[in-house]
């Protein structure tokens, strides 16, 4: 299922289950009382990381049972920074319905599971989003033969849409705003959507852009389908931790920032060893721990960022390896480029 | 009188029966073409079967066993000219070749595959004296009694003293029961035995076993529950829940028919509550609510939680199935047992239960089959059973877009087990047939 799709399904259901919500708040406060996750992780020698049960390019087990993907890489980087072993991660597959309780109850130390950063999750559910590792948004895919080049020309189309999600609401809003009408074809899962769309049950399939790209990549004649340029919603996806344990939140936040900053400063897994000898650039030195005591401030040692980058490479390398243009999913950097390249990635200074 | 009369003195040689009465032709005349209406039906059925198979077989027989991705499958199919109107047509079996081990064992460490295999082979051994009582030496029953402690140890590993200590609780309880029963009476014996066993498990068990484990460290390397997956997970949950739900169901059914008010209301309340709640709700309680109620840091195994919920769920249904069997027994059977001077448990054991259980066999087996298939619901709470894994496999960009092959393979695995159970129940019914 595509990333924010699951999130939204969850969100809609969550509003319905008042009791569960109240209970999870009770559990959250209990979880917050038992802070010091960093010490727990160090004592355990293992990071428990909640991931999706399977999402193309972001988290999936390979044939040997090793978890791979862009979200998985964030977990490995954190494990490398804290425990000096990128493999010291126990991956806990979570569904859209179980992920928040898994985090709140302490079953996992962090979630890296394509979760959209929203106010209610941050504030009401008492979580702390530690940054954004992928900027997503809802898009449209149509067969080329339809001859449409913009979502504005979709008036009267039949649209495959997953039911009970806010994607459905986004779609309704967008069509109303542009004074167009459409006929929804309700479906349950992404796999079903692929089948329906290919069988011609609908003219348009709408879900998150990354999900559309992965779906399109699986088609036999991918070239016969186009993803329209309009993105109609904002889905900043990022790792999150429990509210109230700021030391642990800082570790996860700055590990992600270190990956992003490393790309900006031109540090990658090839030249890391060389850079770690010491460079002319003081910020690189501070990040890699040859100058200053940033690691100590986080409760880690001075090499923490080196290890995080060694785990799989800097942000750009991870992107290229798991979801970039060389992979079957073939996502362009787009919004996820560095701010210097016109994207939104902007790591605060390491000082 | 003349000698014209003819009396045959030797037998005529036996002649072949007419071709139309025996062999394939005879059978077909008898069964397929015994009238114009049946002939038409036969022809139509054959055409229908041909139509279905001609659609499915070319798809099934597809030279894609060695493909490494969906893309490669399509290239192979195009190369052999198997192209339909929607592009390449044919199954992509590469995914099964690459992932079938994963679909069976999940993430279980590969050097320990012998452990689950042995656990399930021994399961067959342990079940044999129960299922085929007349064909296997009775002494094997001792192994069946040991097996419930062997099974979790093989699967999860850990120190040998854990299962031994758990079994010791039963032994201790039994001896206390025996000694008190002789001196006081059997009710006091049962209570005393149960209390001692509980004290052993709750208080003495963990210090003693850990002390023994330190003294003589014998054991298998531990495997975490998170590594369980695929068919093995379904079988583990199914086997344990099936094994536990039958005795629990019998107790609940007897409790429901009991004259003791408290016992009866407890059993009715339990059965009605569990039956009134969907299994998926119980699974959510197991996976999320329990987490919240327990103090942070408690590690209550997720598979154990799921097994408990599945067992409770199945035992409520089992109780009602068995109550149906009890209700079908004529009152004379109860009165006959009473007139022989049997007490309650003797009557149940010797007269009532054998008959009631026999009547309930079809219901019991369909509850088992239903429970086994319900284990796939655990994919909704994030456990990777075969269905959950099929989603995870599709998330691999090599196999994104593959649907039928995975579901077909999983369906086949489930069919084998469910069909086996169903055939066994038919065998058992024939064996226990006394109505002739």
Layout of helices and strands, plus pairs?
The complex is a heterodimer of chains A (351) and B (436).
Chain A: H1 3-16, H2 18-33, H3 37-44, E1 47-52, E2 60-61, E3 67-68, H4 70-83, E4 89-94, H5 99-104, E5 110-116, H6 119-124, E6 127-129, E7 134-136, E8 138-143, E9 157-162, H7 166-177, E10 182-187, H8 190-198, E11 204-208, H9 209-217, E12 225-227, E13 235-242, H10 246-264, H11 272-275, H12 282-288, H13 294-298, H14 304-312, H15 315-322
Parallel strand pairs in A: 1-4, 1-5, 9-10, 9-11
Antiparallel strand pairs in A: 2-3, 5-13, 6-13, 7-13, 8-11, 8-12
Helix pairs in contact in A: 4-10, 4-14, 10-14
Chain B: H1 23-31, H2 36-60, H3 70-79, E1 83-84, E2 87-88, H4 94-105, H5 114-131, H6 140-156, E3 158-159, H7 161-183, H8 186-215, E4 219-220, H9 230-256, H10 261-275, H11 279-293, H12 302-328, H13 331-339, H14 344-374, H15 386-394, H16 404-431
Antiparallel strand pairs in B: 1-2, 3-4
Helix pairs in contact in B: 4-9, 4-15, 5-6, 6-7, 7-8, 9-10, 9-12, 9-14, 9-15, 10-12, 11-12, 12-14, 13-14, 14-16
């Amino acid at each position: 299922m595509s990333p924010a799709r699951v999130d939204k399904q969850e969100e809609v259901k969550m509003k319905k289950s008042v009791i569960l919500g109240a209970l999870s708040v009770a559990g959250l406060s209990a979880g917050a009382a038992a802070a010091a996750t960093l010490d727990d992780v160090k004592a355990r020698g293992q990071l428990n990381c909640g991931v999706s049960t399977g999402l193309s390019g972001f988290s999936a087990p390979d044939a040997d049972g090793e978890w791979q993907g862009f979200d998985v890489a964030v977990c490995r980087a954190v494990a490398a920074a804290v425990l000096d072993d990128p493999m010291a991660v126990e991956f806990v597959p979570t569904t859209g319905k179980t992920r928040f309780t898994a985090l709140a109850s302490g079953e996992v130390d962090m979630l890296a599971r394509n979760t959209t950063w929203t106010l209610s999750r941050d504030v009401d559910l008492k979580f702390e989003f530690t940054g954004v590792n992928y900027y997503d948004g809802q898009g449209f895919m149509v067969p080329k033969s339809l001859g449409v080049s913009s979502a504005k020309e979709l008036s009267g189309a039949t649209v495959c849409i997953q039911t009970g999600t806010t994607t459905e609401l986004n779609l309704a809003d967008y069509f109303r705003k542009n004074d167009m009408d459409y006929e929804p074809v309700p479906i349950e899962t992404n796999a079903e959507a692929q089948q329906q769309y290919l069988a011609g049950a609908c003219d348009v399939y709408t879900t998150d852009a990354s999900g559309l790209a992965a779906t399109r990549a699986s088609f036999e004649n991918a070239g016969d389908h186009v993803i329209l340029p309009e993105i109609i919603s904002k889905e900043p996806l990022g790792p999150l931790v429990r509210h109230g344990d700021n030391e642990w939140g800082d570790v996860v936040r700055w590990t992600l920032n270190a990956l992003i900053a490393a790309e900006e400063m031109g540090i990658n897994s090839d030249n890391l060893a060389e850079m770690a000898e010491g460079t002319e650039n003081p910020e690189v030195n501070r990040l890699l721990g040859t100058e200053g005591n940033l690691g100590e401030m986080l409760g880690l040692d001075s090499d923490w960022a080196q290890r995080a980058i060694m785990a799989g490479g800097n942000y750009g390398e991870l992107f290229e390896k798991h979801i970039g243009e060389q992979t079957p999913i073939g996502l362009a950097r787009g919004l996820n480029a560095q701010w210097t390249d016109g994207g939104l990635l902007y790591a605060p200074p390491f000082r | 009188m003349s000698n014209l009369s003819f009396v045959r003195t030797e037998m005529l040689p036996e002649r072949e029966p007419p071709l139309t009465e025996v062999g394939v032709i005879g059978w077909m005349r008898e069964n397929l073409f015994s009238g114009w209406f049946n002939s038409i039906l036969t022809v139509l059925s054959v055409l229908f079967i041909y139509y279905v198979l001609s659609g499915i077989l070319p798809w099934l027989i597809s030279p894609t066993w060695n493909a490494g991705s969906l893309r490669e499958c399509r290239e192979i199919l195009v190369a052999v000219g198997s192209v339909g109107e929607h592009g390449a047509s044919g199954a992509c079996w590469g995914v099964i070749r690459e992932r079938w081990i994963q679909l069976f064992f999940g993430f279980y460490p590969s050097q320990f595959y012998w452990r689950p295999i042995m656990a399930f082979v021994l399961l067959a051994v342990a079940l044999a004296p129960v299922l085929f009582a007349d064909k296997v030496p009775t002494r094997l029953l001792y192994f069946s009694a040991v097996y419930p402690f062997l099974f979790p140890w093989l699967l999860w590993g850990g120190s040998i003293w854990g299962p031994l200590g758990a079994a010791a609780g039963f032994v201790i309880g039994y001896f206390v029961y025996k000694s008190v029963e002789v001196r006081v009476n059997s009710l006091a014996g049962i209570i005393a035995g149960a209390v001692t066993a509980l004290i052993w498990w709750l208080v003495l068990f963990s210090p003693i076993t850990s002390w023994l484990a330190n003294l003589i460290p014998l054991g298998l390397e531990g495997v975490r529950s998170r590594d369980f997956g695929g068919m093995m997970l379904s079988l583990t949950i199914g086997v344990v829940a099936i094994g536990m739900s039958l005795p629990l169901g019998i107790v609940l059914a007897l409790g429901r028919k009991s004259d003791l008010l408290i016992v009866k209301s407890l059993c009715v309340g339990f059965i009605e509550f569990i039956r009134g709640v969907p299994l998926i709700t119980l699974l959510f309680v197991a996976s999320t609510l329990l987490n919240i109620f327990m103090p942070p840091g408690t590690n209550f195994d997720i598979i154990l939680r799921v097994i408990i919920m599945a067992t409770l769920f199945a035992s409520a249904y089992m109780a009602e199935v068995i109550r149906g069997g009890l209700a079908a027994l004529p009152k004379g059977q109860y009165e006959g047992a009473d007139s022989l001077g049997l007490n309650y448990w003797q009557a149940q054991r010797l007269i009532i239960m054998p008959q009631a259980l026999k009547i309930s066999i079809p219901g019991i087996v369909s509850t088992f089959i239903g429970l086994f298939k319900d284990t796939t619901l655990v994919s909704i709470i994030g456990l990777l059973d075969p269905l959950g894994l099929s989603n995870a496999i599709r998330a691999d960009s090599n196999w994104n877009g593959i649907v039928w092959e995975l579901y077909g393979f999983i369906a086949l695995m489930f069919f084998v087990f469910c069909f086996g159970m169903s055939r066994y129940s038919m065998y058992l019914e024939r064996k226990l047939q006394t109505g002739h």
